[in-house]
Amino acid sequence: MADNIVLEIARYAPDRDEAPSFQSFEVPLRKEWVILDALNYIKDKVDGTLTYRWSCRMGICGSCGMMVNGEPKLTCATFLSSYGKNATVRVEPLRYFPVIRDLVTALSDFLLKLQKVKPWLIRKDQPPLSAGEFLQTPEQLDLYKQFSMCINCTLCYAACPVVGLDEEFVGPAALALAQRYNLDNRDQGSAERLATLAHPDGIWGCTFVGECTRVCPKHVDPAGAIQQYKLTAALDWVKSFILPRGHEDTHHVAAHD
Amino acid sequence: MTDQMLINQGTTDQAARSEFHPRWYRERVSTWWWLGEWHYLKFILRELTSLSVAWFVVLTLFQLRALSHGLAAYMRFTNRLASPIMITLNLIAFCFVMFHTITWFNLAPRAMPVRMGGKRVPEFLVAAPNYVLWIVVSAFVAWLLLRTP
Hints:
The structure holds 2 protein chains of 2 kinds. In chain A, helix 2 runs parallel beside helix 6 and helix 6 (about 170-180) packs across helix 9 (about 220-240). Chain A is of the alpha+beta class. Chain A has a 5-stranded mixed sheet. Chain A has a two-stranded antiparallel sheet with strand order 6-7. Chain A is elongated and about 70 Å long. Chain A has 2 domains: about 5-105, Ubiquitin-like (UB roll); about 110-240, Fumarate Reductase Iron-sulfur Protein, Chain B, domain 2 (Orthogonal Bundle). Chain A has 9 helices and 7 strands. By secondary structure, chain B is an all-alpha fold. Chain B has 2 domains: about 1-30, no CATH class; about 30-145, Up-down Bundle (3 helical TM bundles of succinate and fumarate reductases), CATH 1.20.1300.10. Chain B has helices at about 5-10, 40-70, 70-80, 85-110, 125-145, and strands spanning about 115, 120. Chain B has a two-stranded antiparallel sheet with strand order 1-2. In chain B, helix 2 (about 40-70) runs antiparallel to helix 3. At the A-B interface, strand 6, helix 2, helix 3, helix 5 and helix 8 of A face helix 1, helix 2, helix 4 and strand 2 of B.
């Protein structure tokens, strides 16, 4: 007597298929189930060859991102019941990424782009240990905290049309993470990141569509991060004309001042 | 093999496929990508509002030119503006410019975060003064145009 729901899932086996096709599965519509539960049910009881990524099942690891009815979503955070009992739920791999198999995408390109923006604390000087830890006030933390919430789920890449149209575009998450370090007052590496960021494939590739911010499950607001850096980069460019030699990295305040 | 070389080799648009690398499927993004989703269409319409802004700039330039050529020229210009086609075009352009203004005001706080007392001011409070100023200026212009001389 229990209700069921139909999932239409993209299947692709590289040794067998030229292009992905859809396979329908009927799954119990349990009130507390998310799409990931349905996928696990299918893999357990119906078709063990279904291939997909997942890990924490609680929206923090960023592994289970997929297109659900055309929207990039974390499948561990999307309830089956929000689609209604007679609905068909279409599950596809994240858009704009190469598909390795079924619902698994290739992330190597994203990881290369992430590496390019140097998302780590860069120091020009190393204070002695005797100087103690870097202390940060809540206000200094608040400057970059929102951008540090990124879980690298790449939902924003699936939402961004520029990512789809331009393979070289660095992308929302990488740019937001670069800004997270630029705004961290412990970091002294803004000048090192400038060349990658203030580039047609960096922030200037972004046209502020805003889809990345809309789909982000952690409310990182990568679009905001990019626009803010556009202002910084533009001012920096102006400064490089006015003070070509005295041009200094003014983006941070050293923590030990 | 570097990662980049593996990526390039593995996708379906290149026939090459190594023994240890499967053939990844890569979908081509259609030229009509922006019709596929309402949010994308809204974005393209927002960008197209620049054409409406340009239209009003050009119209104003022609108006100034007509003004500088004397009363007869200006009357001819005004009469042309009153034709049904021009009114329709201007109404459509006006709607687009409204859309442009509203989306611009709503996005501005995203690009310029305002901080007071160490905390971030909520977005609608940053957008609100823009709207208020817009209404005030519009009311003033309306008063200028509608008052009896």
